[in-house]
Specification:
Number of helices: 5
Low-confidence stretches: none
Oligomer: single chain
Mean pLDDT: 83
Structural class: mainly alpha
Largest sheet: none
Helix content: over 70%
Radius of gyration: 52 Å
Order of helices and strands: HHHHH
């Protein structure tokens, strides 16, 4: 072999020059034939390897394009970014409402707890401003109390005129006692009903606030989940665009390499 080349030098020494020339020529022809045979084989192997690489690259490029088309079937990359921005604004607008509802829920829960405590503590509810306002506004109770006041006035007059043992006085006392019993029984009954209504009112307030909070929180969480999905989608689209570009460049390079082979 000749240094720094792909050439070989063949030479022989001997007495018969014609014979030497035939031998050298035969060796060179055999070397050329062998080189041609190996070169053709190597070229076929190289072409097959390049074809396999091209098939593999085309397959990956096709898969990337298919996935890219699926991700962008209903929106472009700029459209996805615009949607994410809209969702971000929507979430920002929901945060103050969420905060307000969380505070309102805590207050309604505390109001319900205090209402139950007031109802369960003897005499506490009956002496409350709410109970007194309710009693004062009841028409039936006002009529009974007016009757009580009238019978009491009439009894006082009869006692001053006839004395305590007079038959009229005794009848008036019975009527007054009856009215007072009615007032007591009626007051107990309406207070019991009002206690239930008072608790129910507090529960309804809490339930209404909780329902609204759940609604707003669901809306917020939905926007957040959609935004995260869109962010993942945007990232994947960007990665696929880079991958497709790389595949296309590799495909062009391998095709050019095959042509040279």
């Amino acid at each position: 072999p000749m240094a720094k080349t792909s050439l070989i030098r063949v030479s022989m020494t001997g007495r018969n020059r014609e014979e030497l020339a035939d031998i050298v020529n035969a060796v060179m022809q055999a070397a050329v034939d062998e080189a041609v045979k190996f070169t053709a084989s190597d070229r076929g192997d190289e072409i097959k390897r390049v074809d396999d690489e091209l098939t593999n690259i085309n397959g990956k490029l096709g898969e990337a394009r298919k996935e890219y088309n699926l991700l962008t079937v209903d929106a472009t990359l700029s459209g996805i970014r615009g949607r994410r921005e809209t969702l971000s604004i929507q979430m920002s607008n929901l945060i103050p409402e969420l905060t307000k509802l969380i505070v309102a829920q805590a207050q309604a829960d505390e109001a319900l707890r205090m209402a139950k405590q007031m109802v369960d503590t003897p005499g506490m509810f009956e002496s409350s401003a709410e109970a007194q306002q309710m009693l004062d506004s009841d028409c039936t109770l006002r009529s009974l109390k007016m009757a009580e006041a009238n019978w009491s006035t009439e009894l006082d007059g009869a006692m001053s005129r006839y004395g305590e043992r007079h038959q009229m006085v005794m009848k008036l006392k019975d009527k007054l006692t009856s009215v007072r019993n009615q007032i007591r029984d009626y007051t107990e009954r309406i207070l019991g009903d009002y206690k239930k209504a008072y608790i129910q009112m507090r529960e309804m307030q809490l339930n209404a606030i909780t329902a609204q909070l759940v609604k707003v929180r669901t809306e917020y969480n939905g926007a957040d989940a959609t935004g995260r999905d869109l962010a993942t989608r945007e990232l994947k689209i960007g990665q696929l665009e880079i991958a497709m570009k790389d595949f296309e460049e590799t495909e062009i390079g391998r095709a050019s390499c095959r042509e040279r082979v």
